[in-house]
């Protein structure tokens, strides 16, 4: 790769992890002869603006951050002619990197920036707001809100912490989910529309989702006891929960969701919309540097 790079760094990502690994990342890219500049982001909107500015100047936009900035930049560059983004893991969850086969060590992951292959990647969107990973709501709304307010010292455990705290006050909700025109109603825990396989720091909610297939995997969990929920929860780390009778998995291009009470929709770790919501797939919307022999995580 010879195009100059703009590194977008979220200073707060991963409890400051991004800043700690930045010198090593810069040294590795410089050793490969890649000219670079570094820009710190102070919000997702700021990151989007910086990404568009860099792309307009013909620079490859590389995020050193968590999934929130990855999704924001991907959305900002979607449909922009010639725009290319790269991803270096610098947050707590780093689920996009995990699924895409990007090494978990940011300096090692620089090899993907140096020798990677540009491939089109699908995006999802919630009422027009783009995301790259998984949009979810219901119980997940409560768990995400709690996790986002928790101490960064918890690391990846913050998502499990959020789920356990949310469990205390959770009551089942009634959902109506329509996938490509087919309606499903149920009482239960959550609904998710997955562009990617994983969220929450390695939870494989949608183990068969594909970043390149032009569809969303729709996963929802029907009502069960709290004890049963706690037994299913660890299965997410291997993706085996989809074998349980409480779990339904569908696939489609457009999903609409309603519920009997308000829920915030979260995606890439951040709030992205409110119910009722329509979630769509945008096939091949953004060009991303991926490993030459990208092995999708299982």
From TrEMBL:
Residues 1-130 form the DAGKc domain. It comes from the Bacteria. Signal peptide: none annotated. SUPFAM superfamilies: NAD kinase/diacylglycerol kinase-like (SSF111331). Keywords: ATP-binding, Kinase, Lipid biosynthesis, Lipid metabolism, Magnesium, Metal-binding, Nucleotide-binding, Phospholipid biosynthesis, Phospholipid metabolism, Transferase. InterPro entries: ATP-NAD_kinase_N, Diacylglycerol/lipid_kinase, Diacylglycerol_kinase_cat_dom, Lipid_Phosphate_FormReg, NAD/diacylglycerol_kinase_sf, YegS/DAGK_C. Gene3D superfamilies: 2.60.200.40, Probable inorganic polyphosphate/atp-NAD kinase, domain 1. It holds the Pfam family DAGK_cat. Transmembrane segments: none annotated. Belongs to the diacylglycerol/lipid kinase family. PANTHER family: LIPID KINASE YEGS, SPHINGOSINE KINASE. This is Diacylglycerol kinase family lipid kinase. It comes from Paraconexibacter antarcticus.
